[in-house]
Amino acid sequence: MVDHAHGAGRVSPKRLFWRLIAFTPARAAIAGVCRYMSRRVERQRGPPTAESAGGVVRLWRIEHFREVSLLPDEPWPLSDGVVLRGNDPVLDFHIVGDKLLARLSGGRRWREIIRDEFRSLAPQLEQRDEVALVGSTILAGQVAEFGAVLRPIPPGRHRSWDTFYRKLILLAFHPGGADRVAHDSPPVLEAAIARVEFCRRFR
User: Fold this and answer.
1) Are 115 and 73 in contact (CB under 8 A)?
2) How far is the C-alpha of 50 from the C-alpha of 129, rounded, in Å?
3) How far apart are CA 87 and CA 142, in angstroms?
4) Rounded to the nearest 5°, which phi and psi values hold at 113?
5) Which residues have a Cβ under 8 Å from the Cβ of 82 and sit 6 or more positions away?
6) Would you state the pLDDT for residue 48?
């Protein structure tokens, strides 16, 4: 006979791991990881090509999309007939996690913050020649709300690490979501929005 009451009280190792990470000291460490990753990108690429008003969003020009894509040779249809190809110049998109966390501490919703940051970027991008803004995410629904097109990337070490890292960031933004993070295993996806579409949406 199965003891359902006893079984119901058990916490899986996976869920326990994410619950432990959800404690405040661990969230502070996650913010530190965010700062490290942002500085690492800047050391590798130099100052960003464009930065939003609050410093939450940074963009770096990449001369050829294939340099940052795991599917570089597959043409990618975006909006308004724009097709992103491996040779196209793009703007690689990064959220500066620690700066977003600092803004969230004031009680504002993250969507509102991101929308304001995008609006501050649009005037900087209107006269540029990059085909699209590109990046990766596990927040498929939320990113699609902002007009991005999504596609899966091949499995492998890069996808596994990127998914884990983005789950850490998600937990820092949503400290009460440990059980959700433990249960959900959203894959990391490539995201792109045509530059002209971005400017039109957030002008």
Assistant:
1) no
2) 13
3) 28
4) -65, -50
5) 131, 132, 194, 196, 197
6) 94
Q: How far apart are CA 99 and CA 128, in angstroms?
A: 26
Rounded CA-CA distance 10/122 in Å is 50
Structural element, H or E, at residue 201: helix 195-202
Residue 171, token pair as written in the block:
């937990």
Q: With beta carbons less than 8 A apart as the criterion, state whether 54 and 102 touch.
A: no
pLDDT by residue (tens digit) across 12-24?
665 555 455 554 5
Q: Retrieve residue 185's tokens.
A: 């295993």
Q: What is the pTM of this model?
A: 0.75
Q: How far apart are CA 6 and CA 94, in angstroms?
A: 45
CB 182 within 8 A of CB 18: yes
